[in-house]
Each structure stands twice: as structure tokens, then as C-alpha cells.
Task: inverse folding
């Protein structure tokens, strides 16, 4: 492979993460100009140090100026996505993040651990004697979906519909996730209408949940309007569900592909703290976020002009040889492990990182402690996306320990 043959756009991800391309880029062109057939092109940033630097420097590398998606947006779409915390810069970002951050502090997650562990146990109870399952829907999707829906205040009867709608939104380019005649646009309309109904109920009947906190919150003396509430709701449902689900999927795939590490973890429970961090590094669930240069600058000696798109590739950073010895080895005892699975460092560090860690630990411990002999029962089917590192289906077989 040559540099001018590298393609990091959508079709390149159909068979998995293009690690060969990332290895070449980190070696020869860590800040590489990547053309776009329908756009101006962008800088692909693949080394750990550069991803961290750009993540921390929000004044130079803006999330708000052009949004966080690789594709350029219309002015109307850009104005809308700038109402989400993913697409805000400080100080606006900090004001909005504070509205929900209290629900995700280490203290709050510690209060939820018992609930998380009981639900993980029940989920594995449902499959333990079957000897087989479709891992994504039967196991991986359930715990993060249940927890975020309960934290927001979505009733249990609607949980599965939230699962379908979030699939449609992140899988807008995947035909398997466009159910019947429902498009991503109509899915967004449905979830917005649902949010409006929940918000109206919370205004009349406040509860101890995140939706009540949002409808009662004020930013600079004003309550959030309907669109701001809708976008917060979508961000919480999708980010609190899809990302952790796929981290669990990739953690299971790692154990299948590395049976020695699976047995090592079974034999030594003291490895769980490092194992969870390695699962996060290995299964990085978001491929990239875009930034836009606000001024002329440089990364790794490469000049970057004001207005240029700069795309940060987290999976590549998590395989950087300068940071992770033998980076393509799954090692449940790896330490240190300075991964960027939660988006690097800085103000956009994942709000739900503590919740995700608690959920992954709970479900993976149940699986490792109670089941054995994980074997594929068919090829996993990947999500068609250059943004989400997703697995749609993963049938497996196993035995009870």
C-alpha cells in the first residue's frame, strides 16, 4: 500500500478498521492530506501525541466552527448541530455540559453500581443455559440501553423502540438499519416528538431523572427550548447506548480471538482493572471526530491553514507504537495504558466514561466468570460507517462453566 492509495472514507471500513493504512500513516505521514470526492479534503491525524494535542487545544482546533463530522454540513444543519455539546467550544460547552454532568460523576456512578451488576447478572441468566446467542441484541445492547433509558426517565415499555431509533440514526448509511419505510430523518422526527412528550410530562410531574434536570435547567437565565432539549435527549440516548454496546461487542470479539488472554483473566481476577482499560483501547467505538483549524497552525511539523478540516483518528492513536509496546497485541495486563477511547483528553472527554467502565466491567465479568468456550457461530456483521466502530450481529456459542 502507498500513501496515495489510502482511503479512510466510508467504504474502507466495511471489513473492519484499516489498521494497515493507519500503521503506514503513523510511520510516514502522521498528518496526511486526504482528498474527498465531494469535499475539500482533510488532514488525517493518526499519532497519539497529535490527537491528544488537538483534543486539548480547543482554541486552535474547533468543534463548533465546522462541526465534528467529516462531511461538511449545510448552514442550516450546522446551526442545529451546534446546539449539541459535542459541537460546542468553551465557554459555551462548559455551561451546557454542567446541565447533565452531575448525573455522571464518580459518586453518582458508584450509587448505580449495584443496579448495574444486578442487571448484568440477569442478562447473562437469560442466555447461560442456551449455549448460543446473538450476542449484540441478546447481551451487549441490553445493559447500556437499560441504564441510560432509566437515567433519562424513559419507561421500560419504550426501551426497545429507543434501541431501534438509535440504530437508525447512527446507521443512516446502512440499509439494515432503515427499518421498513423509516429513514434516519423520520427516526429523528419520532425521537424528537417522544422527547417533547417526556419533557411536557416532567414539567408537570418532576422526577429524580436527567430529563427533569434538563427541563428545569437554565443557561444564562433562560430555559432550554424544545430543539435544545431534543438534541440533548438524542445525544444521551445514542451516546449512552451505541458506544458502550460496541465496546462490549469488541471486548467479546477480543476474548474469542485471544483465548490465552481469556484464560489468563479467568485465572487471575486481579487483572480486571487493567483488562477493562485494554478492552477500551482495543475496541475504540468511535473512529474519529473532526475539528476545524481556527488559525494557521501545525501538527508534527505539517503546516495547517485556518479553515482546514482536521480529523482525529482515535483507533490509530490507540495503536501508536510510540505509546503502546506491541500495540496490535491484546494484553489484559497492559500497564500503563494511556488510551484515547473516550475521545482523548480535554473538555470533550466523554461525559459517560465512568458509566461505560462500570457497565463493561459488570457484563464482561459475568460472561468470563460464568461462561467458557466462546466460539463464533458465523461471521460478525459490521455497521457500514466511517464514524461508529459498530457490530450489527455477532452470533456465538459457548458452554457454562
Result:
Amino acid at each position: 500500500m502507498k500513501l496515495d492509495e489510502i482511503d479512510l472514507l466510508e467504504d474502507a471500513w466495511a471489513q473492519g478498521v484499516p489498521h494497515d493504512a493507519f500503521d503506514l500513516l503513523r510511520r510516514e505521514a502522521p498528518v496526511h492530506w486526504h482528498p474527498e470526492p465531494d469535499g475539500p479534503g482533510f488532514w488525517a491525524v493518526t499519532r497519539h501525541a497529535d490527537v491528544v494535542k488537538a483534543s486539548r487545544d480547543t482554541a486552535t482546533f474547533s468543534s463548533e466552527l465546522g462541526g465534528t463530522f467529516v462531511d461538511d454540513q449545510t448552514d442550516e444543519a450546522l446551526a442545529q448541530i451546534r446546539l449539541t455539546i459535542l459541537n460546542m467550544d468553551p465557554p459555551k460547552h462548559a455551561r451546557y455540559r454542567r446541565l447533565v454532568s452531575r448525573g455522571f460523576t464518580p459518586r453518582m456512578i458508584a450509587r448505580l453500581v449495584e443496579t448495574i451488576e444486578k442487571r448484568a447478572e440477569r442478562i447473562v441468566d437469560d442466555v447461560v443455559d442456551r449455549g448460543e446467542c446473538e450476542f449484540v441484541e441478546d447481551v451487549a445492547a441490553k445493559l447500556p440501553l437499560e441504564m441510560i433509558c432509566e437515567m433519562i426517565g424513559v419507561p421500560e415499555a419504550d426501551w426497545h423502540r429507543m434501541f431501534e431509533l438509535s440504530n437508525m440514526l447512527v446507521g443512516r448509511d446502512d440499509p439494515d438499519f432503515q427499518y421498513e419505510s423509516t429513514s434516519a430523518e423520520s427516526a429523528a422526527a419520532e425521537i424528537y416528538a417522544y422527547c417533547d412528550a417526556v419533557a411536557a410530562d416532567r414539567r408537570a410531574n418532576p422526577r429524580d431523572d436527567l430529563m427533569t434536570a434538563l427541563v428545569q435547567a437554565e443557561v444564562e437565565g433562560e430555559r432550554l427550548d424544545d430543539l435544545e432539549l431534543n438534541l440533548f435527549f438524542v445525544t444521551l440516548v445514542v451516546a449512552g447506548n451505541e458506544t458502550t454496546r460496541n465496546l462490549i461487542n469488541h471486548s467479546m470479539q477480543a476474548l474469542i480471538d485471544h483465548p490465552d488472554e481469556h484464560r489468563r483473566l479467568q485465572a487471575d481476577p486481579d487483572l480486571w482493572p487493567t483488562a477493562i482499560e485494554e478492552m477500551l483501547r482495543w475496541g475504540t467505538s468511535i473512529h474519529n471526530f473532526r475539528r476545524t483549524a481556527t488559525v494557521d497552525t501545525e501538527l508534527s511539523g505539517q503546516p495547517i491553514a485556518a479553515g482546514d478540516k482536521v480529523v482525529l483518528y482515535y483507533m490509530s492513536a490507540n495503536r501508536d507504537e510510540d505509546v503502546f509496546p506491541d500495540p496490535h497485541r491484546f494484553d489484559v495486563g497492559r500497564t500503563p495504558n494511556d488510551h484515547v477511547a473516550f475521545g482523548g483528553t480535554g473538555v470533550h472527554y466523554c461525559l459517560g466514561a465512568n458509566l461505560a467502565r462500570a457497565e463493561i466491567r459488570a457484563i464482561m465479568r459475568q460472561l468470563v466468570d460464568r461462561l467458557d468456550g466462546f466460539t463464533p457461530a458465523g461471521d460478525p456483521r459490521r455497521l457500514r460507517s466511517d464514524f461508529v466502530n459498530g457490530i450489527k450481529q455477532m452470533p456465538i456459542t459457548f458452554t457454562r462453566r
